[in-house]
Design a protein that fits this description.
single chain, about 400 residues, mainly alpha, Hypothetical protein af1432, 2 domains, 18 helices, binds magnesium ion
Length: about 400
């Protein structure tokens, strides 16, 4: 018997293991795991997953050991989403798999890197990290004898592809369909997406304070934060600042998580889905914050944009990062023989199929796969005379 599963304890509209739409290449079921546990395990064992440890969230990886990287960010997203998944009787293993995979396609240097690479790729179909995450699990990982990629379930791939243009959707087969048919993804995918926002808004407050780019005084402007700071100070007058920050952030996360559980339960009860396909057919999302909490959350997001992401020290780093990514893309595009052998072969193959756009895609795959420190090192090797080779 296979490990079949926690279906008895899950809601009927959760992603149920025996109702999966399956994998691109059929495989026998796993012996002691569910299909979605196998997805999660394949993600954890992938090369792209290990690279997340050296990729920037907001702060460049080598700026300090305590800042979030994409790996710890992904783990925080998974942890938040799993708590909510259990409370709503959704598939926890699938939720975790989607969360751990959601940033696999991210370039070095966070959004700065993604924007720079997208500009470089403008004439060749663009670059979008979300689409790249799908490309990593579908095409780029080389781990199995029988197929390229990780051969994940449809539901996991559906969750990884959060958004997508109509033009791209047409080229993506089954997972692209919902963007053309204007359908929703399953609840586990909706949850992973929301947990991503909850995680980064809250940990960016923590990292921003640690870096000295934000102050608690400033953060009192934001109602979501002020409410929690005041609650902590009322209960623990004179609490040392480090503990005050942690108490505040953990209470903010809890406040949002509780709201998502309660509000989503109401929406699900009103929509009465009997099956994951009923969830997909809804006109809107069922996993959501209540309106007042959503408004507070958006205020925090706007605050972080104005005060953290646009802080001159973050902008300075952004500028350097863009320069590194652009220079690397251009030099490899001009001569693919400057890339390691595997990437040269990929570039020749893709160019034979799709001309310059094919070559550009292979170069983008190489650059996107780099960690922050690898990109900096490769940039030195290419452009600084006398440096390491
Ligand atoms: Mg993320």
């Amino acid at each position: 018997m296979t490990a079949s599963h926690d279906n008895g304890t899950l809601a009927p509209y959760a992603a149920l293991d025996d109702q999966t739409r399956g994998r691109r290449y059929p495989e026998p079921p796993p012996q002691y795991r569910t299909e979605y546990q196998r997805d999660r395990d394949r993600i954890v064992h992938s090369n792209a997953f290990r690279r997340l440890v050296y990729k920037t969230q907001v702060f460049v990886n080598h700026e300090g050991d305590l800042y979030r990287t994409r790996l710890t960010h992904s783990m925080e997203v998974a942890q938040i989403a799993r708590s909510i998944a259990r409370a709503l009787r959704l598939n926890e293993a699938l939720t975790e798999a989607i969360c751990l995979a959601h940033d696999l396609g991210h370039t070095p240097f966070g959004h700065a890197g993604q924007e720079a690479l997208n500009e470089c790729m403008r004439e060749y179909g663009g670059f979008e990290h979300n689409l790249q995450s799908l490309r990593v699990v579908d095409e780029l990982e080389e781990r199995y004898a029988d197929f390229a990629g990780l051969n994940l379930t449809y539901e996991c791939r559906e969750g990884i592809l959060k958004h997508c243009s109509a033009a791209n959707a047409r080229t993506l087969g089954d997972v692209g369909q919902r963007f053309l048919a204007r359908q929703q993804p399953g609840l586990e995918a909706q949850l992973a997406n929301l947990a991503d926002e909850i995680a980064y808004n809250n940990h960016d407050v923590d990292d921003g304070l640690r870096a000295g780019l934000l102050t608690l005084e400033q953060l009192r402007e934001v109602p979501l934060v002020r409410t929690q700071i005041e609650a902590v100070q009322a209960k623990y007058p004179g609490l040392q600042e480090r503990r005050l920050i942690h108490e505040t952030v953990r209470r903010m996360i809890n406040h949002l998580v509780v709201d998502v559980v309660q509000h989503s339960s109401q929406r699900i009860a009103a929509a009465r889905p009997a099956h994951i396909d009923d969830v997909r057919a809804q006109s809107g999302l069922l996993i959501a914050m209540s309106e007042p909490v959503q408004a507070q959350h958006l205020q925090l997001k706007a605050f972080l944009r104005d005060n953290l992401y646009r802080h001159y020290r973050v902008q300075r780093m952004t500028l350097k990062a863009r320069g590194v990514v652009r220079a690397l893309f251009e030099v490899f595009m001009s001569d693919v023989r400057l890339m390691p052998d595997d990437y040269q072969s990929a570039a020749r193959l893709l160019e034979s199929q799709n001309g310059l756009a094919g070559r550009a895609r292979a170069v983008a795959d190489y650059v996107a796969g780099m960690t922050d420190r690898y990109a900096i090192l490769e940039h030195e090797r290419m452009f600084v005379p006398g440096e390491r080779s």
